[in-house]
Amino acid sequence: MVKRQRGHKARLELTCDQSALLDEQASAAITIGNCLHAYWTHFPGRKPTLAQADQAIRQARTDFPFLAALPAQAAQAVLKT
């Protein structure tokens, strides 16, 4: 017996404000991901801990207002991936 997997696709009908917010959050997530990559490769021979990287993200979100557009939970998810 073969188990069938069924999915559901739904098209999002976003308003202009929602679309702008989503673009802003996506840009912040990409920027945080790029900064984390640079942070990780900056330390030759040793890697920073997740706690140190989390603290760096928290500091960056306070120093750069455009990164604060991304919720803290989403920033932590970027760190975990």
Shape: flat
- Protein structure class: mainly alpha
User: How many β strands by DSSP?
Assistant: 0
State the helix count.
3
Report the average pLDDT across residues: 88
Helix content, binned percent: 55-70%
Q: Outline the biggest β-sheet.
A: none
- Beta-strand portion reads under 5%
What is the rounded distance between the termini?
36 Å
> What does the radius of gyration come to?
17 Å
List low-pLDDT spans.
none
* Strand/helix succession: HHH
Question: What is the element layout, followed by pairings?
Answer:
Layout: H1 16-42, H2 50-63, H3 72-80
Helix pairs in contact: 1-3, 2-3
Search tags:
mainly alpha, single chain, flat
Notes on the protein architecture:
By secondary structure, the chain is mostly helical. The chain is 62% helix and 0% strand. It is built from three helices and no strands. The protein has helices spanning 16-42, 50-63, 72-80. The longest helix is centred in the middle third of the chain and has 27 residues, at 16-42. It is flat, with a radius of gyration of 17 Å. The termini are far apart. The mean pLDDT is 88.
Give a concise summary.
The protein is mostly helical and 81 residues long. The protein is built from three helices and no strands. The longest helix has 27 residues.
